[in-house]
Structures
1.
Amino acid sequence: MKLTTLLGSLFTALCLIGCSGEGDSSEAPKRLVPAKASEVAGSPDYKFERTTTTGINVYVRALTPEVANAIPVDSPDRRFLTTGRNPYFVIPIRDDKIVELSKEESAEVAGFMIERMIAGDPELKKVVGGGGRKQ
């Protein structure tokens, strides 16, 4: 059950990262994700996670569930949000620009984000380590 929830959350996040565009709003909500890649890379709030095989630098910012839940539905920050027990932003950067991920890039980022989620959740690590069965 936990594995299904994990995969469902990750799939939703990847759809948001790879498929959503900037929404038009007459009243722009406050942004938590900087608009410029240089601001993300230079911010102490964002941690460099790794570089993909296609050259995407992935930055991550951990969030509290309260902060994640307070992000408005129409916020452009939503496209970077990964929800779950430990929500965070995933920011893909290439050539000093925040970019949209292709399907292949999304799959690669999903792979190491699943690793990250498992590593950060001892109960999930136990379930996945046992082949998906609770021990």
2.
Amino acid sequence: MVNLRLRFCGITATVLLTCVCSLAATQAGGGGDEAFGPVVRAYLGYLRNEQEVVDDRVSRHEVSVAYYRRNSNRIRALRQMAIRIARDSGNDYLPELEAVARDELGLLFARPPRPETLLVGEVLRNTFRFLGTLRSGEVFYVFARLDPYEQSDLMGKGVDKSGISRAPTRTGPGTGAKSATRSRRVTSP
């Protein structure tokens, strides 16, 4: 009889623990994504899938620990920026985001800008708008790729010889950012 009660209590505890763990995993996996529209939720789901791919590759020893760490941090930075943009704008829209470390700026630009000179809202080469920096294990510089309409609008307005249209907010490592809706026109002398 005592043995039967112990088994029943053990099974009940196991089922209860499984339910609690399942609920916690569901809430952690969603990360409160239900507060956003379908576009933002889809992007956050895409980032979760990317993290799973990176996790899988490191578990199979296909990538180095340094690669894993950098890409996991990059995914976290992109998630933080996406959530910030969605909350600040209140819109179910995200631009195409790029997060690069200092030594990766050459992946986006033929002649990489000096990070300490970047301004939040600044448009570089009529292609990217600098959104700011995020510290996620290391500093990532986050850019939004301009859509073709924004690019043609900027080309019609003109920019300075360097291809940079400036906005007034300075940023540095670890500072947040708010996306400027329009870049300030700069005229050349």
3.
Amino acid sequence: MHKPSLRLFVILALLLPVAALVSSAAWAETKLEATIFSYDGKDFVRTETTLMAAGQSAASTKLDPGSAAYKALAAKHSYTGPATLFGKDYQSYYAPLVGDDGQLTGAVFVGVPK
């Protein structure tokens, strides 16, 4: 397992206890959304996601370059705050994924519907 994958594994492993704390009734009412983005030097592209767009997976769609989350991630900073994705409002958390060489390789997103 190379380093970016290990980091992603660690991030997701840290999120698991949070998901486990949510009761099944609360989970039914408040579904967490999550996305893993790749970054090609210009675009953050959803490679894996639970988000839906027009009834289909939002995989392969891009993060809006005009969004506050994009601006923070491009500067290798996390972003916490409101986000509107595919017509739905979320309280969101985005975190950059950076390789050992300091290069931005992607990002992760977790959102709670408002």
